[in-house]
Amino acid sequence: MPGILKKTRITLEMIKWEHSVFALPFALTAVLLAAHGHPGWRTLGWILVAMVAARSAAMAFNRWADADLDAANPRTTMRAIPAGLLTRQFVLAFTVVAAVVFLIAAGELNQLTLYLSPIVLLVLFGYSYMKRITRWSHLVLGLSLGLAPSAAWIAVRGSLDVRIVVLTAAVTLWAGGFDVLYACQDFEHDRSVGLHSLPQASGIAVAFWAARIMHLAMMALLIWFAVLFNFHLAGWLGVAAVALLLGYEHSLVSPRDLRRLNAAFFTMNGVIAMVFLVFVAADLWLRR
After folding, report:
1. How confident is the model at residue 72 (pLDDT cuts 50, 70, 90)?
2. How many Å apart are CA 208 and CA 211, to the nearest integer?
3. Per-residue DSSP letter, 79
4. pTM greater than the 0.70 cutoff
5. Which of 146, 167, 183, 273 sits at 20 to 30 Å (Cα–Cα) from 223?
């Protein structure tokens, strides 16, 4: 039992389960909009299970697929597999279990979520190999998070509304933009081993401009989204808050100073997602 508990703790640290907060608030935003502010507890519960399971499977698979790459990168040598804390077999088994839980949760929601769930897993698992073939792997990571609101909408309604796809596009650019910045840390290493990224292909200065453009496009999409769903004052304040927080995030780092990148990438991204959810929820509930 102590060994199992230790492995569980290490696994949770490996997959950074607390970072589920990145996509989850956007999924819950879609749930509230789809359910007009009143989601059923059963549906909400299975959506939460599906979200956490899907992300856990994706992160574990990424660590399994990248084990050799992580071992060769000084920044990632202390991750669980290269450090010898977990075996590749254990991590792969965890991935399979998490994927099965996701499929079960999808089946408990409705038929369409079950039919589409393998496609979601394909995107989530496919990201791990994109850096080997294209500099635009950042957008695949973005899509992995961006699928969350559209999937949550389908989970509630059993069909897809094109309006929620606008939020999917916004989240895709949001996450993709910051993955571009995050990849700047591995600029030299990626060039030396032949891995692909926007910083590796174009340089750090160009990568920063690409991230800024992605986030400006994200804000344009959020404004369009607010119009499509007829946001009132609280919703528009949420959009404004996201813009301010994004601006603050970009002020934390520069092409010459990446020291506060973790604060920008992890802490502030979670804050942005939660702030948007809170304001949209307030907008919906104030209309009653």
Report:
1. confident
2. 5
3. S
4. yes
5. 183
Residue 206 near residue 162 (C-beta atoms within 8 A): no
Residue whose structure tokens are 């059993």: 158
3-state secondary structure of 87: coil
Residue 56 CA to residue 98 CA, distance in Å, equals 6
Give 228's contacts (C-beta < 8 A, 6+ positions apart).
Answer: 163, 166
Given a contact cutoff of 8 angstroms between Cβ atoms, the answer to whether 174 and 215 are in contact is: yes
The CATH architecture to which 2-286 belongs is Orthogonal Bundle (1.10)
Place of tokens 């599906």: 50
Sign of the alpha-carbon dihedral angle for 200, 19, 215, 264: negative
Length of the chain: 288
Q: What is the dihedral of CA 176, 181, 186, 191, to 10 degrees?
A: 70
Burial of 288 (0-12, 13-18, 19+ CB in 10 A): exposed
Residue 188 neighbours by CB distance under 10 Å: 10
Determine the distance from the C-alpha atom of residue 247 to the mean position of all C-alpha atoms in its chain, rounded to a whole number.
Answer: 20
Q: pLDDT (tens digit, 9 = 90+) per residue, 40-69?
A: 899 999 999 999 999 999 999 999 999 998
Report helix, strand and coil shares of the chain as percent, to nearest 5.
80, 0, 20
Cα gap 142→168, rounded to integer Å: 9
